[in-house]
Structure formats: C-alpha cells, structure tokens
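Teaching assistant here, posting this on the class forum so everyone can see the example we discussed in section. The complex has two components, and the goal was to see what a joint structure prediction looks like when all of them are supplied at once.
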Amino acid sequence: MNIWIAIIGMGLITYALRLGPILLMERIEIGGTARQALRFVPTAVLSAIIFPELFMPGGTLDISLGNERLLAGLLAGVVAWRTKNVLWTIAVGMAALWLLQALG
Amino acid sequence: MTDPQASPSPSARPRLSELLGGVRSELPIVLGGIPFGMIYGVLALAAGLNPWQAQAMSLIVFAGSAQFIAAQMMGAGAALPVLWLTTLVVNLRHVLYSTALGPDMRHLPRRWRWLLAYLLTDEAFAMTAVHYANRQIPLTYKHWFFLGAGFIMWAEWQISTAVGIFLGAQVPANWSLDFTLALTFIGIVFPALQGRPSLAAALSAGVMALLTFNLPYKLGLIIAALTGIVVGVLLENTSPTSRNLRGSGKFPGSE
C-alpha cells in the first residue's frame, strides 16, 4: 500500500464530511423539524461521549462504588448544574477523581 | 478559561476577544489531549510509517480516532479501499456537526467556511455549538471563536504528534488527565438539561451509547446521537407541557 496515497485519500474523505453539509446549508432552507432536530445535536452527541467515559471506564459496564470516574463525574454533574461553570466542574471533578484514586 | 456561555464584556476588539474565548474554552481539553497525540505518534512509527508520514497524517487528516485505527490497519497491511471505507465510517459523525453548525455559517465568506471545516473536530464542535447557541451574543464575530477553538486543538494535535514521534510517549497514565474531556462536556451539557425533552435526549443517547459501545468504528456514537435527537424531537412535539418549554433542550440562551 502506498502510504502517501492512503493518507491523502483519508484526508479528502474526512474533509468532505466536514465541509459538505456546511456548503449544502447555503442552498437548502431547513424547516421546522429539521431545525428542531439540529438543536439537540450537541446534547445528544456529548451525552453519548460522556456516558461510556463514566460508566465503562475499563471498557465494561461498572456501576459500583469502586468506579471512581462515575462518582467523580456525578459530583461534577451536580457542580455543573448548580454553578453553570465549566471551570468549577473540571476542578471539582479532577480533585474528586484524584482523591478517590488516592483513597482506593 | 471562561465559561463559554458567559457573555463577553463589550470589547473594543470583538474579533480578538472571540478568538481568545475560543482558545480558552478548549484549554482543559488540550491538556488532557496531549498524551493521545503522543501515543498516536509512537503508534504510527510502530505501524511502519516514517516520521514525515506520521506527521503528515495529523496535518492532512486531523482526526484522532481515525488516525489511531488507520495506523493499526496500515501496520496490518489492510487494502486501500478498506482503509478509506473505515475512515468514512469512523468520521461520519462529522456530518452531524457540520449540519448542525451550517445554518449559522451561511453568512461567512467561502474561505472562512473552508478553513473552519478543516478545524471541525469533536472538541471544536462541542465548545463552538454551545457558543453559537447563546443568542444573546450576536452572530457577527462568532466565527472567530470557532477559529480560536479549532486552532488550539489543531496546534495541540500537531505538536503532541511531533513530540510522540521524536521523543516517544512518556506520560504517567495515573494522572488521568484524559478525564478533563468528559468533565468539560459535563460542564456544558448539565446546565442545558432543562425540561423533559432535553433530559430524555441526553439519557437515551447516553444509554444507547453504553448499549452500542462494542460496535466498531464509532458506529455506536452515531446511533446513540441519532437516538437522542429523535427522542428529544418526539417528546418536544408530543408532550403538551413541553410545548411551553420550547427552547429548552438546547443550550442556555438559545431561546
């Protein structure tokens, strides 16, 4: 396999996926339901990234008090809810994770 | 870093303040992402790429997950069409990001859209989408925020790849800095969960992500995201109480 051709092809494919819809949106007027759906994209995508990080830290489902990332993540969620501040969320979440790891 | 949802104070230099806002929003993720770039660099060399090729893949493809998988496939001697098809599937989620941001990028000159599309990673999308959703800040200069967020992730990826290639990866794993990604996303998603549709969208997407976690090529992420979107829209359109909450389920300020 020619590695350079492989890389350039990968780059073109990836760029097309990232650029295509942006350019299409110039011509397509999207209506009510589609617009409504697009507003859920961040919530849905980010939740789909967050859940496995918390519930499956080792690649398998772990709902127990021994799951430090789940506990730290839930605490961070409470902080996020109350403060609406990303920096506090990260600070408390990381501190909780390190503390739990030190204790465990 | 500042809260990306906070309104920036009126600035004499709105472009610069948007740009720096974008950079700041990504800083915690940048920190956690550095080891991944380094590990990719090491992995690419081990798969038989030379240093130029390994770095060029980060420059030309600029998509972490796809690069990890591609390096492994190259090492195993996979055929080109298989490699490209895999890239297509792994990066399919970017279509969702591009579609979501597209309507707010219509007014931009072509060159801006071509540049920002190149910088459209998971992380850049997350912070930029939240920023765009805040309708209290005018759209005028928001693409500078996107540029800042995209650029800092780009710089992090290029530099950490180079460090991995030339110095190797020596990061103590027990610092758990990769957790900053999940925490940052928690920090922007949780405050946005107001009303049943958004809560249901988040829960259904999350649970579906757990159920589909073992599917290859990040397919689970797409299935989970689509599930969350459909559930959110259905609930918003069917439940009579949620009609009053229309505008929730999105990010703060998007009403």
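For the discussion questions: The mean pLDDT of chain A is 93. Chain A touches chain B through 69 residues (CB under 8 Å). Think about how each of these relates to the inputs above.
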